[in-house]
Amino acid sequence: MMSLLTVNVRLALRSLNRNRLRTLLTMLGIIIGVAAVLTMVALGTGARASVEDEVGSAGTNLIFVSSGNYTRGGEGVGISAGLGSAKTLTSGDVEAIASTVSGIRYMSPGVSTRMFVVSGDASAAGTAVASASATAKREFARVQGVSADFSQMYGWTVVAGRAFTPEDVQGTTPRVVLGRALADRLFGAGANPTGKAVQLRDAGFTVIGVITGDAEDHREVAFVPWTTLQRSLGVAHLQTITIAANKAGEASRIAGDVTTVLRKRHKVIGSAQQTGYLAAQGGAGGTPDDFTVKTQAAQALTKGLYTPAAAFALANLPQLDQVTLEEMSETLDRASDTMTALLASIAGVSLVVGGIGIMNIMLVSVTERTREIGLRMATGARTRAIALQFLTEAVTLSMIGGFTGLVLGLISSRVVGWALGWPTRVSPGAVLLAVGIAATVGLVFGSYPARRAARLDPIEALRTE
Questions:
Q1: Residue 203 to residue 184: CA distance in whole angstroms
Q2: Between the CA of residue 403 and those of 15, 389, 407, 439, what are the distances in Å?
Q3: Which of 394, 373, 395 is nearest to 385 (CA)?
Q4: 256-298, pLDDT tens digit by residue?
């Protein structure tokens, strides 16, 4: 059977090679259809993955760990306020969280203070500006120490220069990234201060970038590596740890795991356990935590609410981020299914047209080779062998068109993705799908011409001129 199939493939290639132009025109529909299918799958898969990443990392994926924890509105309410006073949060906690808690995408230790930021070589020590140059400007602004991951968490747009790298955080060279609004006030509207100097306290820093982002307050901030700000302030503790989850729906789980890790490290362990939000903020066994852990969803939900109302909302919606993710995922699925159905219908039309073209050409081939078919039958060829020959020829024609369309689809998906700025992703499954579609079109639309050739009467076929 295998040798017969090999012979039929050779005969099919020889037959298709007799009229190359006709063969090419016949394959054109299959080439376009397969290329369209592969381009659709590549763009759709890439765009979906990109949107899923955005959905997974947007809105409610952040977890905020802050040092200190005291309450307002009564101990029974337990809403935290006045954070940042404790000095027990350290870089060792960051390492413990990174090695213990799964599902974390980014993490940034944080130190923050407010001080004068002075452009040029001016001194900002205290309020004295005796050595300030005539052109120097100074602004009292927040200076925030962050890691290289911080820019990814908040989706910074770097309008000049660059953001921090891990080498900046590990090194000792003082560097600063300015928010757009702060940079405008220090150096003039729209200016590019990259490479210029600013003074923070008594130390000179080099501006390496200017950023904008979704967080409005970031435009007013001077960002420096957290290690550099620790040295400048002469402290070893952290004020915050900001964590970004891989998926928004995992934020509550990660917040709980982080709380458990920090309680063990800070020796906040007891026998009696509370439940819900108050347990996450109030400690265990009656011992208060020296830190707070809050998800972005919880922070957004309680913003502007009166304290008891905020406590009630948090206690009744502990998995708010999971609910939000499910709603966004359902919307994404519906939009993706609609777009896939639209593009699939367009590609399907091309494949049907290509299949009809193959069937027409194979019917013409049967008519042209009627006498050949009669001679083969007269010499003992069975109807099954005749049908297999023409079916193999149709599948071969379709497969050649399919592989050509595959190459064109890979190229076109890259070109279209580059032109539209969309990501493309071609999986092995998509390649197999394209090849399978081409083979199926050949089988389906080649079956009728093959049956017609096999049913010819040998005597009538031999009489054909």
A1: 21
A2: 19, 21, 6, 10
A3: 373
A4: 899 999 988 887 544 334 434 444 445 555 567 778 888 876 6
Q: Rounded to 5 degrees, what are φ and ψ at 270? A: -145, 180
How far is residue 311's CA from residue 76's CA, in Å, rounded to a whole number? 10
Tokens of 190: 């729209």
Name the 3-class secondary structure at 305.
coil
Which tokens belong to 4? 């017969």
Which of 49, 71, 53, 69 is CA-nearest to residue 61? 53
String of b and e for 304-332 (b: at least 16 CB within 10 Å)?
A: eeebeebbeebeebbebbbebbeebbeee
Provide the residue type at 410 as one letter.
L
Do residues 364 and 420 lie in contact, with contact meaning Cβ atoms separated by under 8 Å? no
Largest CA distance in the chain: 115
* Angle, CA of 158, 160 and 166, to the nearest 5°: 60
Radius of gyration of the chain (CA): 34
Indicate the length of the chain as a whole number. Answer: 465
d(CA 35, CA 282): 60
**Number of C-beta neighbours around residue 226 at 10 A:** 25
313 φ/ψ angles, rounded to the nearest 5 degrees: -65, -45
pLDDT tens column, 357-386: 888 888 888 887 788 888 888 887 788 888
- Rounded to 5°, the CA angle 424-429-433 comes to 100
pTM over 0.85: no
- Rounded Cα distance, 384 and 12, in Å: 16
